[in-house]
Design goal:
The chain has 375 residues and is an alpha/beta fold. The chain contains 15 helices and 16 strands. The longest helix has 27 residues.
Length: 375
């Protein structure tokens, strides 16, 4: 993998870049649609690519359980198997192993060796370690693999977060050692480390130092997308490390995807983002507009006879073909086309926003163009 910064914004940490992977290049800042189980929900790979996505995300936990990484490996990896035929980043699945297994069976447990858990599908006892999640991601033929980390809720106690930082660093060291021992990066594949630390400045800074001392290809900031007490805490957690991040490596903010958050986090030097929100919100009848990036709900009675598209300024296929009236009807009768149409629109809004952000950084106008969101 190779990463080059191509432009910077004065008075900001915002930058553009190009990330070269074995399956293609990615212009950053970039939003990665989430294809948890091998597909972005309700959409084909061709549809996602036509909207401008250059990389998608898959999840090791879900793909390990069904269909199993060995099935996918027989087809040359996730990119070929799904007909995406482009770059793919895979999450380690550690968070899902703990959270889904715990919610289903109350039996998931984090130890120094890894995460013991039971499948949320059939209750089968499974185990993730720093080493075997890399083996799984190698079978998936990921362009970018993620290490397993200990990810407590962002509002967890200092004692719990301190433990998580220690364990995350220990697992990161084991991951790097195994990655190098197995020569997993020889064909240009990349491995990213993850910073933890919750809302504690000292622990965020400690984690940033320890993770960046290791030869990871990229640096991720984790544990900020599961906050239950508001965006101020997410902003604070990122603020603690933004100026400490190695500028020669790509910075990945995990699990963040609301338009306003993307703008603010680009200002803090983040290069890569992923989130399930575009398709999840669509399945609940919600959509963004480009005028103010606020959410609206298609089930609103005011749209019953509305002949306008979802967004007058949007060029996505949904807005070029369908009225609010028609889409409201489809949603109210539970027609799956409504969810697909809104998913296409929401993804288009985010991907077009990233294009707009990149252009503004290249023109050194990011701070003025997005002055409503950044100071």
């Amino acid at each position: 993998m190779n990463f080059q910064v191509t432009a910077t914004q004065s008075g900001s940490l915002a930058r553009t870049g190009v990330l070269e992977t074995p399956n293609g290049s990615i212009k950053t800042p970039a939003f990665m649609p989430v294809g948890t189980s091998g597909a972005v929900k309700t959409l084909s790979a061709e549809e996602v690519k036509s909207l401008g996505a250059e990389i998608i995300l898959g999840n090791t936990y879900h793909l390990r359980i069904r269909p199993g990484e060995k099935v996918i490996e027989k087809f040359g990896g996730l990119s070929k198997w799904s007909n995406w035929n482009g770059p793919i980043l895979t999450d380690s699945g550690g968070y899902q192993a703990y959270s889904l297994g715990r919610a289903k069976n109350k039996l998931s447990k984090i130890t120094e060796e890894g995460v013991k858990f039971r499948s949320h599908i059939d209750g089968k006892l499974l185990f993730f370690s720093p080493e075997n999640v890399l083996d799984i991601q190698r079978s998936l033929n990921s362009d970018i693999a993620m290490v397993i980390d200990d990810c407590p809720p962002i509002e967890a106690t200092e004692k719990r977060v301190r433990q998580a930082v220690y364990r995350t660093t220990d697992w990161a060291k084991r991951s790097i050692e195994y990655w190098q021992q197995q020569k997993m990066g020889e064909q240009g594949r990349a491995l990213f480390g993850i910073i933890q630390g919750g809302l504690f400045k000292e622990l965020r800074e400690q984690s940033a130092r320890e993770i960046q001392e290791l030869p990871f290809d990229g640096i991720a900031v984790g544990g900020v997308a599961i906050a239950s007490e508001g965006k101020e805490k997410i902003n604070k957690a990122v603020d603690y490390v933004a100026h400490l991040l190695d500028k020669s490596r790509p910075h990945y903010l995990m699990g963040v995807g609301e338009p306003a958050d993307l703008i603010r986090m680009v200002d803090k030097g983040m290069d890569m983002f992923d989130c399930v929100l575009p398709t999840r919100l669509a399945r609940h009848g919600s959509f963004w507009t480009t005028e103010d990036y606020q959410l609206k709900t298609i089930s609103h009675a005011a749209y019953t006879e509305d002949s306008a598209p979802l967004d007058q300024n949007c060029q996505c296929p949904t807005c070029q073909k369908y009225t609010r009236s028609y889409l409201r009807h489809l949603f109210m009768v539970n027609e799956s086309l409504a969810m697909r149409a809104l998913s296409i629109h929401n993804l288009s809004v985010l991907l077009e926003l990233m294009k707009r952000i990149r252009a503004s950084i290249e023109n050194d106008t990011f701070k003025t163009e997005f002055s409503d969101y950044v100071s």
